[in-house]
Design brief:
The chain has 20 helices and 20 strands. Strands 1, 2, 3, 4, 5, 6, 9, 11 and 12 form a nine-stranded mixed β-sheet that branches. Strands 14-15-16-18-17 form a five-stranded mixed β-sheet. Helix 17 packs parallel to helix 19. The radius of gyration is 24 Å and the shape is globular.
């Protein structure tokens, strides 16, 4: 007996699911999905089958054509949930489970109409990564197992359902409802199962890409992401032909807890990317790059998460370079360095969470989440590329994709492959230091440009009165302004805040990266004129990347702590469960 993934009850000696047939009845009143899943094994299976579940009410289990079979639920584990053990009679090719999801299912956020842009209809979206698919479907919820799927989703008439799959028809259903069918023919890890239901419209961006959003935002979204086909072409240049047929995107309501999620064929995106100037489309480049690094070649468990994210950040910056040049790329690495240093600081008492090859037995993967797998991982990939040389590395990447396509691999498998293809390169870059030692190795690649050095110098001269001139400010791109703000001292005075806002017009920025960076500085300075804007942002946006620093910065003064608690009380019913948990963690660390 062997459980290869510490976050799943999956037993490697048991049959593997090959395909799921899903039926979801979406009930907005009860905030529940009435679900039926049929797990197909391909071959004949028998004996114990352990599935992951969390918060699911199992109603019945049967083998089609045979009838009910025995099943039992294990004790609740706070991280894993409950094991559902089925006992399959000999010759079983498929088994069906009828069940009901809980209104608290972590994979699902049920939004009232007021939480949408149109305010007319409710909205539902899923977020299964890391280990929340088990709150939506009983399944072998580990990337070690890959499944294709078919789905039928029944929703109130007037609402549209989309999934991480291709549409395969829709038709009216009894009782004023409508059924949408989907097919995902390629095998995916369960964390890439995805569903959204709402008032949705779409606009075509290219023959293989369209964007979905609420009708009120769809035009803005189509404008913001108009360049996506260019990105797909650049990514294909890096990795080979796009493997998923279509690349569509969905812009979610503002409570979506991430910037983007790489659900195959349907990237999910936060509406905070709609800056109005295309300045935040690097997130799209990132999610698109996951089509290869993550979705095609997948981490075997969350202990190897850096294989997904490190490669993807590296690819995102390569796409940035080919689209906007080396200066833009260097700024991207500088923002990453900033995020990396913040994460290393946050985990300074937990150095075991700062290695790339993680050991997560007993640790909730959402608690281990940080910029470290992203940025330390991307630096390891960049170091390998530098050592091998661009051309050899390019060929290596193509081989890597070909060899492991549609499989899920470990760090150890990755290293063995690198050693075989690029002998000596791992040792030359000191890969073990990245993989197994805390912090960032001294030898990690550093990305510089004259432009970046100029911004750094200027920001470092802030305490001595160094200020950017009006012409300089007018010429800055959003990325330059952001890097400048990130490099300013974390504690500035209220006079400094007034100067910044007056000269950089920060309060009204549509670019959330800039806006939140500014509000974080203002919160730390106890700068009262920013309070209304801080409240507005925290009441509306659920993206954890913004909530964590902004609430954190409110911890410095009695008055801002009171503000943070008051805002959280009002805002938390509208937050996603994941976001609520992160903010609670931040508030608990406030001094009394
Ligand atoms: N796959 C991640 C989002 C994620 C990570 C969800 C872990 C659940 C658990 C996605 O690709 C991502 O990295 N998003 C970033 C984008 C950024 C790095 C460009 C985000 O949401 O900020
Ligand atoms: Zn990612």
């Amino acid at each position: 007996m062997h459980r290869p993934d510490p976050h799943s009850y999956y037993e490697s000696s048991q049959p593997k699911t090959r395909r799921l047939r899903l039926k979801f009845g979406v009930d907005f009143e009860q905030k529940r999905i009435q679900g039926e899943v049929t797990l197909e094994f391909g071959d004949e299976a028998k004996g114990d089958l352990d599935l992951d579940t969390k918060g699911l009410e199992v109603q019945s289990v049967k083998v089609p054509g045979l009838g009910p079979i025995p099943w039992s639920l294990g004790d609740e584990d706070a991280i894993l949930g409950r094991r559902l053990r089925l006992v399959l009679p000999a010759g079983t090719r498929e088994v069906s489970v009828q069940y009901l999801t809980s209104p608290e299912a972590m994979a699902l956020q049920w939004l009232d109409p007021e939480q949408t842009v149109g305010k007319q209809a409710p909205f539902l979206f899923s977020q299964c990564q890391q280990i929340h698919a088990r709150t939506l479907v009983p399944c072998q919820d580990t990337p070690v197992v890959r499944v294709s799927y078919l789905a039928e989703v029944t929703v109130p008439e007037g609402l549209t359902a989309v999934m991480s799959a291709g549409p395969s028809g829709d038709a009216p259903a009894p009782g004023g409802r409508h059924t949408y069918r989907f097919a995902m023919p390629q095998p995916i890890p369960t964390y890439l199962l995805a569903l959204a239901v709402g008032r949705l419209e779409s606009r075509d961006l290219s023959p293989r890409s369209r964007v979905w959003a609420e009708p009120e935002t769809v035009e803005a979204a189509a404008w913001e992401f108009a360049g996506v086909e260019d990105m797909i072409l650049k990514a294909e240049g890096l990795f080979g032909a796009y493997p998923w047929d279509r690349y569509d995107m969905l812009v979610l309501p503002p409570s979506f807890p991430y910037g983007g999620m790489e659900n195959p064929r349907m990237t999910f995106l936060t509406p905070t990317l709609l800056a109005g100037d295309r300045s935040l489309v690097d997130v799209v480049a990132h999610e698109l790059a996951h089509s290869w690094t993550g979705n095609l070649v997948t981490n075997a468990s969350m202990e190897h998460f850096w294989l997904n994210e490190g490669f993807t950040v590296w690819a995102e910056r390569r796409i940035l370079r080919t689209l906007h040049g080396g200066d833009a790329e260097a700024l991207g690495w500088a923002m990453g360095q900033n995020a990396l240093e913040e994460s290393l600081e946050r985990f300074k008492a937990e150095p075991h969470l700062t290695v790339l090859r993680l050991h997560l037995e007993g640790i909730d993967p959402d608690d281990a989440f940080s910029s470290i797998p992203y940025e330390k991982g991307a630096r390891l990939v960049a170091a390998l590329e530098r050592e091998a040389g661009e051309e050899r590395f390019h060929r290596f990447l193509r081989d890597y994709m070909d060899t492991f396509r549609f499989t899920s691999i470990t760090t150890e498998q990755f290293c063995a492959f690198v050693e075989a293809q690029l002998p000596g390169v791992l040792a030359a870059v000191g890969a073990d230091d990245y993989l197994h030692r805390p912090g960032l190795p001294e030898s990690a690649p550093v990305f510089r440009s004259a432009q970046l050095d100029g911004l750094t110098d200027l920001a470092e001269r802030w305490p001595q009165g160094g200020r950017p001139g009006a012409e300089q400010i007018a010429a800055w791109t959003p990325a330059e302004l952001l890097v400048y703000l990130q490099k300013l001292p974390r504690l500035i005075t209220q006079e400094d805040c007034a100067w910044l806002d007056g000269n950089l017009a920060l309060m009204g920025r549509g670019n959330y990266e800039i806006l939140v960076e500014w509000l974080t500085l203002a919160a730390a300075a106890d700068y009262e004129p920013a309070f209304p804007r801080i409240r507005e942002v925290l009441m509306k946006v659920g993206r954890m990347k913004y909530l964590r620093p902004l609430y954190g910065a409110l911890g410095g003064h009695p008055r801002t702590r009171a503000l943070a608690r008051e805002i959280f009380t009002a805002a938390s019913p509208g937050y996603h469960g994941l976001s609520r948990r992160v903010v609670q963690g931040v508030l608990e660390k406030f001094p009394a």
